[in-house]
Each structure stands twice: as structure tokens, then as C-alpha cells.
């Protein structure tokens, strides 16, 4: 329950991928293909995202670049946008491997926009991202001589599970336009919004003419989370900037998705009857799994961030720390590991508040229940040693 992998729909996906139509091969799979992705797959992705993303106008398949995973998509965008030692603003806590994705080859940095569990005046929620916090971080970066080239934004967010409100996202886009910053919108959990009545403020919901700065706006999505297909290595970039699209086309030569995988993904997206059934069941299972985790947290009196999206719950275990230090957080992590339980601590997300952990619930129900009992056992033992009872 430490790695954000989706096991909830594996049987359905395996059954679908075993369909004879998906395993048929032809001569086109044995030859070189368009490095940006097979035209039929790009057309299928465009239609799928137009429908499922509630886009007001059809997505253009010619603005799509398919790559072998979200990591190379982010890496390639960073390569296009910045020079070594340039930086993206990035709200923290955040999925820690983003730093690797933008930094390993492109040698860009992430400059943290610190969010807090304790809202400031004018903020209505814990860990709320505001333009005020973005402006502060941008000024701090300038004061330190760091060249900010863009904003990296996960929507829905990992590990918070936040879905940005429409006005909130629009204000952020206006901030980026004001400062001539690129914005990379990582929407890898686009279809993993399970909260009743929750609505996604995806960039796909904008008409091109309504995007404040379309030439500096870029979108990524993939199959690893919403379809639980992290091993298949399929993802895409959508950009309105044709200059960046041209560079990405060349970079895609190094990140091509296998022809056989593209073939399977195309047929998967074209089966609308399957998709309707899939997402209906998927969202129900997300709700059920989320409830197992949160019911146990409530029973234990453990605070958590109640959010409508993602595969995880951001959970406050700080009262079980021996002190408010990174060392104490690591100590708690080790106690959990000794009880055969791994959940990722705040340090792994560059969080500034120790004691928060991400609990992944996209597993089989029996696995979730066992995992939560192991967490409870460790917490109860710590409280008993402190002389308190639950």
C-alpha cells in the first residue's frame, strides 16, 4: 500500500486484452511507424479524451505525441521548456519522482511552493494552492537567482487527492500567463475521480480560445493509473505549441511505444460499451476501497485529508511520532516496515510537515483490510507505550 499502482480492475483488463481482436498481428506491426504514435491510436485517444474529458471541442490527433510512459513525457517536455538549472514551480508535497523526471536529463530543478495543513487567512482548505503562494514562491526564486520557466501541476494531485476548482485553475493559468510561464498539467489520474458529485477542472474542458496562454500550456495523460496498466508503458502529450510539438516529434524517436501495445490500446479505447461498464465498476470499487481505509482511520481517531480523487489517502500520523523531526518520521516508517507494512512518508513527497503518510487503497479488499490492521497495531502499540489508550 505504498506504491501507487491500480489493482482494482486487473481481471477486467486482462480479460479485455485477451480478446482475439487485440492479439491479432499484421505486417504494419513489423515495420517502422510514426514516432508520435500510430495515427489510429492518436485518433482513438483524441476521441476518448474528448468524450471522457468533457471537452467542448474535439481534440486534434495531430497535437498528440504518444510515448512509452508518463515519465518520458515529462522528461521530454522539460527538455523542450528549460535549460540546465532552470526550474519549475511545484506545489509541495508532490510525487517525488517528478524531480527525477525533470532533472535527470534536462537538469532542471523544482522550486517548491509550500502548502500547509493549516490554512492561512483567506484560504478555506488544508494544503490549498493559491495565486498568493505562487507569487511568493516566484519572488523567492528570483531573489535566489533561479530562473523559473514554468509550473508543474498535478490535477488530480498526488499525494493529496485534490481536484482543482474551475476558478482556482483559471486563476493559476492567468498567473502563468502574467509571468510568461509554461504550465505542464499532469492529469494521469484524470479518470480516477470517485467522489460523488466531484467535477474535474481539466484543461480539456477549455476551448482553445479560452486558455489564457495556449502556446505555453501542455497536458499529459497515460494508461498506468486509470486503467491499471503501468507495465504496458503507454502515455501521451497534448500541446497547442507547434514548435514544441516539432521538437517532441524528434524526441519521440527515443520513446516509442511498441506497435503491439499501441494496437491493444487502440482497440481498448474504441470499445465504448466496455469503457462504460469499466468506469462504472472502477469508480464504485474506488469508493468502496476508500471507505475501508477511511472507516478504519476514523475508528482510530487519525486525521486524514478527505478528497475525491486518486488512489490514496493523505493521512496524518504525526501524533505517533516521538518528536516532530524527520528522524522520528523515519523511525515510524521503520516500525511499520517491521510489521510488514509500507506506506510512503512525507519525506518521500518533499513535504514540510513531518508525520503525514500516503496510504494507497487501490488494492484487493482483503489486502487493504490486513494493511489497515497492521497500521492500527503499530499505532496502538505506540500509544500504549506513551501511556494512552485508543
Overview in brief:
This protein has about 400 residues and is α/β, with parallel strands linked by helices. About 40% of the residues lie in helices and about 15% in strands. The strands form two sheets. It has a seven-stranded mixed sheet, sandwiched between helices. Strands 8-10-9 form a three-stranded antiparallel sheet, covered by helices on one side.
Structure description:
With 390 residues, the chain is an alpha/beta fold. 39% of the residues lie in helices and 13% in strands. The strands form two sheets. The chain has a seven-stranded mixed β-sheet with strand order 1-7-6-5-4-2-3, sandwiched between helices. The chain has a three-stranded antiparallel β-sheet with strand order 8-10-9, covered by helices on one side. Helix 6 (166-178) links the parallel strand 4 (148-154) and strand 5. The longest helix is centred in the C-terminal third of the chain and has 29 residues, at 272-300.
Amino acid at each position: 500500500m505504498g506504491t501507487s499502482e491500480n489493482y482494482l480492475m486487473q481481471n477486467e483488463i486482462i480479460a479485455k486484452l485477451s480478446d482475439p481482436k487485440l492479439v491479432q498481428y499484421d505486417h504494419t506491426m513489423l515495420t517502422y511507424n510514426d514516432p508520435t504514435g500510430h495515427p489510429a491510436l492518436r485518433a482513438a485517444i483524441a476521441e476518448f479524451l474528448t468524450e471522457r474529458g468533457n471537452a467542448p471541442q474535439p481534440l486534434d490527433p495531430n497535437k498528440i505525441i504518444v510515448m512509452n510512459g508518463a515519465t518520458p513525457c515529462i522528461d521530454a517536455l522539460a527538455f523542450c521548456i528549460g535549460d540546465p538549472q532552470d526550474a519549475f514551480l511545484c506545489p509541495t508535497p508532490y510525487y517525488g519522482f517528478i524531480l527525477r523526471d525533470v532533472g535527470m536529463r534536462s537538469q532542471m530543478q523544482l522550486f517548491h511552493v509550500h502548502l500547509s495543513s493549516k490554512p492561512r487567512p483567506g484560504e478555506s482548505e488544508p494544503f490549498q494552492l493559491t495565486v498568493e503562494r505562487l507569487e511568493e514562491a516566484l519572488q523567492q526564486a528570483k531573489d535566489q537567482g533561479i530562473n523559473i520557466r514554468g509550473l508543474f501541476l498535478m490535477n488530480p494531485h498526488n499525494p493529496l487527492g485534490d481536484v482543482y476548482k474551475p476558478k482556482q485553475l483559471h486563476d493559476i493559468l492567468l498567473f502563468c500567463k502574467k509571468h510568461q510561464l509554461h504550465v505542464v498539467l499532469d492529469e494521469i489520474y484524470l479518470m480516477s475521480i470517485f467522489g460523488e458529485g466531484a467535477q474535474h477542472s481539466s484543461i480539456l474542458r477549455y476551448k482553445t480560445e479560452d486558455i489564457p496562454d495556449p502556446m505555453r500550456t501542455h497536458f499529459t495523460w497515460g494508461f498506468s493509473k486509470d486503467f491499471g496498466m503501468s507495465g504496458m508503458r503507454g502515455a501521451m502529450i497534448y500541446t497547442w505549441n507547434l514548435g514544441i510539438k516539432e521538437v517532441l516529434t524528434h524526441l519521440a524517436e527515443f520513446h516509442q511505444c511498441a506497435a503491439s501495445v499501441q494496437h491493444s490500446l487502440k482497440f481498448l479505447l474504441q470499445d465504448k460499451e466496455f469503457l462504460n461498464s469499466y468506469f462504472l465498476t472502477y469508480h464504485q470499487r474506488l469508493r468502496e476501497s476508500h471507505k475501508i481505509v477511511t472507516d478504519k482511520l476514523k475508528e482510530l481517531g487519525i486525521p486524514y485529508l478527505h478528497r475525491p480523487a486518486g488512489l490514496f489517502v493523505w493521512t496524518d500520523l504525526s501524533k505517533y511520532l516521538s518528536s516532530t523531526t524527520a528522524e522520528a518520521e523515519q523511525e515510524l516508517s521503520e516500525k511499520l516496515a517491521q510489521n510488514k507494512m509500507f506506506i510512503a512518508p512525507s519525506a518521500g513527497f518533499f513535504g514540510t510537515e513531518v508525520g503525514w503518510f500516503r496510504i494507497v487503497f487501490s488494492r484487493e479488499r482483503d489486502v487493504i483490510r490486513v494493511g489497515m490492521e497492521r497500521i492500527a497495531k503499530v499505532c496502538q502499540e505506540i500509544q500504549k507505550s506513551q501511556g494512552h489508550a485508543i
